[in-house]
Amino acid sequence: MTNRLLSFILLAPLFIACVNKKADTPDYQTITTPTGTWELVWNEEFDYTGLPDSTKWSHDTEGNKWDWGNNELQHYTAYDSLNTYVHDGLLTITARVDSMDGKRYTSARLITKGKGDWLYGRFEIRAKLPTGVGTWPAIWMLPTDNVYGGWPDSGEIDIMENVGYNPDTIVSTAHTKSYNHVLGTQTSGYIEVPTCHSTFHTYILEWEEDEYRVYVDDQPQHYTFRNEGTGFAEWPFDRRFHLLLNLAIGGNWGGRMGVDDSLFPHHYQIDYVRVYQRTSP
Questions:
Q1: Catalytic residue chosen out of the listed positions 44, 161, 206, 234
Q2: Is residue 156 among the annotated active site residues?
Q3: What are the tens digits of pLDDT across the range 149-202?
Q4: Rounded Cα–Cα distance for residues 125 and 170 (Å)
Q5: Catalytic residue among 44, 72, 124, 156
Q6: Is position 44 annotated as part of the catalytic site?
Q7: Can you give the pTM of this predicted structure?
């Protein structure tokens, strides 16, 4: 056996391992955007069948007893496949006419608290929204530790909200002690996405120390909230936050025009959730 052949035999497994490792690396592991290069640190591709992965998601039901502060009409269930189920690469959150605990509707609210908590980063959530008067799907973030006090003092980042009576409009909003809807001082960004119910779109937050920006797909940012440098009342976004995905029914905003029961069940589908940290400017 020649030395050349022997060398090939010895190196072949290493070569194959390198090829396989490269093949196992997703093309979204490192991404470059107009704002810099970002590295994937957490993701959920929903590449399984069954209930949402309990190592990444919890079902939040605590607010059922006080209507979640918004006079919402749904009862959020926990680990009920009728309301949350993963299949064919998609998470589906389903709202149903299905009386429970004195509520006419059931739905679900998923959170990453204690399983995915971040300070700054790029967050990509690809989703297809339900439509119909009375629906209120959302993608948003809340503080994990409430360092500055209860809502709204510790902040809230609304990446995507949509209400069924205004179906083409995506709304993004910041809530802080100084800027919130109770005082009527909140600021919001709006973008028209007429196909948000028929096709998937990617809802994106880029959150940094001096500001955060919200986008849909590859469109220019439609909302920017800046750090004024005046303290937590205006900028509480210097602490870790977690993600929430939920489909509310009715409520002070979602139910402003009532609820059309003839349109149920409603399905809110999420293709993936990806979280990145910046690696370069």
A1: 161
A2: yes
A3: 999 999 999 999 999 999 999 999 999 999 999 999 999 999 999 999 999 999
A4: 14
A5: 156
A6: no
A7: 0.91
